[in-house]
Design goal:
With about 240 residues, this protein is of the alpha/beta class. The protein has one domain: Aldolase class I (TIM Barrel, Alpha-Beta Barrel), CATH 3.20.20. Helix content is about 40%, strand content about 15%. It is globular, with a radius of gyration of 17 Å. It binds 2-phosphoglycolic acid (PGA). The site of 2-phosphoglycolic acid (PGA) has 13 residues, from strand 8.
């Protein structure tokens, strides 16, 4: 049985005061699902300290594909582990589309994160054009193959994958639930013997209004929430539905 997972990606939002308010709203959260918060890097220590007496885990929104050295501006997996992070996102579509991260870099990030003992959440997804051209499954397959090439098949023995159609992120347009379920099922089958254990999240305009339907699908094990995770009332509601 896979445990449900709700992840809140705060992206580049908030300041010290506002983050303290968001975190205070999470202190009384009670739910059966695993919950992870992804604050902006600089606020990770603040969030870790405030949530230390809760079961809510903290992760980073991005990580370097390098281990250590002269890489100005980068943050390594080991550093994140060192301060108490347990998770990191890799290959979020905003990193791919706005910062030019390619499949190989994403795969290296995934590999380095696992080496350091972080649990990476591998984000995959297609553009609207790719979907319209019928390329969704081929693209997802290629994104997974690059990770398999780089990190080996056993890297999926304890991994989390997030399917996030790029055209559904921050747009208010969620993909149709049956389309999402199909992609999730495809990902699970693609992962072979590790598929049954791998948690596959959906992300892209998730709100309390579509959470229950999404989580009711056989292969949707959780949600990766962007915009709506900044509203703690809405986020808590989604956690309780999971
Ligand atoms: P959204 O973002 O919920 O605002 O669409 C999802 C994500 O980017 O993880």
């Amino acid at each position: 049985m896979r445990r449900s997972l709700v992840a809140g990606n705060w992206k580049m939002n908030g300041d010290k005061k506002n983050i303290a308010t968001l975190v205070a709203g999470l202190l009384d959260l009670e739910c059966k699902a695993d919950v992870i918060i992804f604050p902006p890097y600089v606020y990770i220590p603040q969030v870790l300290a405030s949530l230390s007496d809760t079961v809510i885990a903290v992760g980073a929104q991005n990580v370097s594909e390098r281990k250590v050295g002269a890489y100005t501006g980068e943050v390594s997996s080991e550093m994140l582990r060192d301060i108490g992070c347990q998770y990191c996102l890799v290959g979020h579509s905003e990193r791919r589309s706005l910062y030019g991260e390619n499949d190989r870099q994403v795969a290296e990030k995934f590999y380095q994160a696992q080496l350091a003992g972080l649990k990476p959440i591998l984000c995959l997804g297609e553009t609207l054009k790719q979907r319209e051209q019928g390329e969704t499954l081929g693209l997802i397959s290629a994104q997974i193959d690059t990770v398999l090439d780089c990190a080996g098949v056993s890297c999926f023995s304890d991994a989390i994958v997030a399917y996030e159609p790029i055209w559904a992120i921050g747009t208010g347009k969620s993909a149709a639930v049956d389309q999402i379920q199909l992609v999730h099922q495809y990902i699970r089958e693609k992962l072979g013997e590790f598929g049954a254990k791998t948690r596959i999240l959906y992300g892209g305009s998730v709100t309390p209004a579509n959470t229950a339907e999404l989580l009711g699908q056989a292969d949707i094990d959780g949600i990766l929430v962007g915009g709506a995770s900044l509203d703690i009332g809405a986020f808590s509601e989604m956690c309780q539905m999971a």
